[in-house]
Specification:
This protein is mostly helical and 144 residues long. The chain has one domain. It is built from five helices and no strands. Helix 1 crosses helix 3. The protein is globular, with a radius of gyration of 18 Å.
Length: 144
Amino acid sequence: MQFVLILLVIAAGMGLSVEAGLLGPLGGKVGDLWATFSIFGVGSALTFLLMLFFSPRNSPSIFSQPGWQLLGGVLGPVYVVILTIATPAIGIAMTMIGILAGQVFKSLIIDHYGLLGTARRKIETKRFLALIFIIAALILVAQG
């Protein structure tokens, strides 16, 4: 099961690269904020349809959850706006490696301290080396 989840995560990462490639030109034509809005509008409509047909009917209300758990709703558009602005200027590869470096760095901190309700996972040498290799990739791609 873990292998299947890893493959799905890799596929999702590939989808982000395609999204970056789509957003840059769209932002150049309609504006960065309109491009972001279109991505979230289409995504919201699709999510609504999925919820309508596949979501359990007796789920707890989203409004009964702690407010900090809804911060993803703020972080998502910020991420997409940055993606829309950065991709045409620095390219898809540089954008994605930069995003990956930031994700891995912050993920290591979240895991290490068990933040946001996650299980604690210490920063081990192998995890730290993975971050170093991603930073090295960022430097190499920037020089290319």
